[in-house]
Write a structure and sequence with these properties.
The protein has 16 helices and 18 strands. The N and C termini lie far apart (53 Å). Strand 2 and strand 3 form a beta hairpin. Strands 5-13-12-11-10-6-7 form a seven-stranded mixed sheet, with helices on both faces. A four-stranded antiparallel sheet has the order 14-15-18-17, covered by helices on one side. A three-stranded antiparallel sheet has the order 1-3-2, with helices on both faces. 46% of the residues are buried.
Length: 471
């Protein structure tokens, strides 16, 4: 075996038996070479082999850090001694009695005549008149309701986003997005050959000046925005900001995709951007967060000039809704199921937020009492990648590093997003306590890790500045 592989094996053994822990910093390669009596070129190959095995991660200008230990090879021969990590990455909100509530409408679908109509042929992108009326009622807010004729249907919210971007932005086109954005948009853009242009943020979301400047630098084709309960920052734009953005879209001749998937949680949310510029905004939403992800429907409220184009994108992408799901969603909207579920989930989100306030008091958080997630700007001694690895390995908690949301190179913050919706309340409470204890364990981070500058006394996350602007 070549020498560099033998040395890499020894480092891997140290990771497995705990002598090296996630978050530990390896020495610079020249120092490593001197300690092991090897050439610098061999040390470079050792570090490359460790990275290939997934044991370490290199951060430019910071060093090389140990990730979580890899799983043992082959099938496990003994009963597991621990539990699976608590998943605070994905958000699947639910509530007690949800299945019983939804079953009322599904029981009616068991009638042969109703079932035959639902499954005999694929649903069209335009659905049915009854489905469009029901969708308009679900999406309506105080002061705004969509025209039922403007509603199209997708299989889920992700497919609605994909269809909207496919219809609006050709391959090679430039899409303006928040500097921190929904990761799915990054994946869809990559598959469609769309170039993302990160736009600076403040406490209300995208800065109008940043949008205008980006368009002047090189014309944008469209913009993707989350004006209400931005994911992951929880920001909500006020009426004034929405009106300003609407006028800017008109003056720049731009169309925006407005994602309102989480907006239902805010009881007094401002009217959507689509209410301010209905001819310039394509709104996307979903039933999955309101009800359940297993049987869902995606909604699109589309300006008349784009309706045929978006409907064709839904058909050609095979993103149209299933007939059974559409029939169920229509009944859930009409019999009050959706309204009851929304009320229950608002209360549940507030209860979970109270756990965050208690367990992470004093931390630099961006959140909302209505949100099912929060953004945590980590203590100065921690980097997002190493904290994420340490959280999984030591605390048994899976969280999402800030880089997953960064739309551009060099904009990844040392922060994590915590999803609050999925685990039971006691499990979430314990997981948050473990994360707080890990963050306070400054001894977990080896000396030599350069610390970030801390905010001035009395400043909080709303006073910080960075690649996303003051927020």
């Amino acid at each position: 075996m070549e020498e560099y592989r033998r040395i890499a094996d020894r480092v891997e053994a140290a990771v497995r038996d705990g002598r090296l822990r996630p978050g530990d910093r390896l020495p610079p390669q020249r120092v490593f070479a001197r300690r092991h009596g090897i050439a610098n070129s061999t040390a470079i190959r050792v570090y490359g082999e460790l990275a290939r095995r997934g044991l370490v991660v290199g951060e430019v200008g910071r060093g090389t850090f140990v990730r979580a230990a890899p799983p043992p090879p082959g099938p496990a021969l003994a009963e597991a001694t621990g539990t699976a990590p608590v998943d605070l990455q994905l958000n699947y909100p639910g509530f007690e009695g949800q299945s019983e509530l939804m079953a009322r409408a599904l029981a009616a679908l068991g009638r042969p005549d109703v079932l035959t109509e639902a499954v005999s042929r694929p649903a069209a992108a335009t659905g049915t008149p009854e489905a469009r009326e029901a969708a308009a009622a679900v999406l309506a807010r105080p002061g705004w309701a969509p025209d039922p004729a403007s509603v199209l249907f997708a299989g889920n919210g992700r497919q609605a986003i994909a269809a909207a971007l496919s219809a609006l932005v050709p391959p090679g086109g430039r899409l303006g997005v928040e500097a921190l954005t929904y990761p799915l948009v990054k994946a869809v853009a990559e598959r469609l050959g769309i170039r993302l242009v990160p736009l600076a943020l403040d406490a209300e979301g995208v800065r109008p000046g940043a949008l205008a400047a980006a368009h002047r630098a090189a014309p944008l084709t469209a913009v993707y925005l989350q004006p209400t309960l931005h994911n992951p920052l929880c920001a909500t734009a006020g009426e004034g900001r929405r009106a300003e953005l609407a006028e800017l879209l008109r003056s720049l001749d731009l169309t925006a995709v407005e994602d309102t998937t989480w907006a239902f949680l805010v009881p007094d949310a401002p009217a959507p951007l689509a209410a301010h510029a209905p001819e310039r905004v394509l709104l996307v939403d979903s039933l999955s967060k309101r009800l359940a992800p297993g049987l869902t429907v995606g909604y699109l409220v589309v300006p008349g000039r784009l309706r045929a184009t978006v409907a064709e994108a839904l058909r050609s992408g095979a993103w149209t809704v299933g007939g059974l799901a559409l029939a169920a969603a229509t009944r859930w909207a009409g019999d009050g199921t959706v309204a009851e579920a929304v009320a229950a989930k608002r209360a549940d989100a507030e209860a979970r937020h109270a756990l965050v306030r208690r367990r992470l008091a004093g931390q630099a958080l961006r959140t909302s009492p209505y949100a099912y997630y929060c953004w945590w700007e980590l203590p100065a001694s921690w980097r997002a990648e190493t904290f994420t690895a340490a959280a999984a390995a030591r605390a048994g908690v899976a969280v999402t590093p800030g880089g997953a949301f960064a739309a551009g190179a060099g904009t990844a913050p040392d922060a994590i997003r915590i999803g609050l919706a999925s685990p039971p309340h006691p499990v979430l409470d314990e997981a948050l306590a473990r994360l707080a204890a890990l963050a306070a364990d400054t001894g977990s981070v080896r000396s030599g890790l350069p610390a970030r500058s801390a905010p001035s006394a009395g400043s909080g996350p709303s006073a910080r500045s960075g690649p996303f602007g003051a927020s």
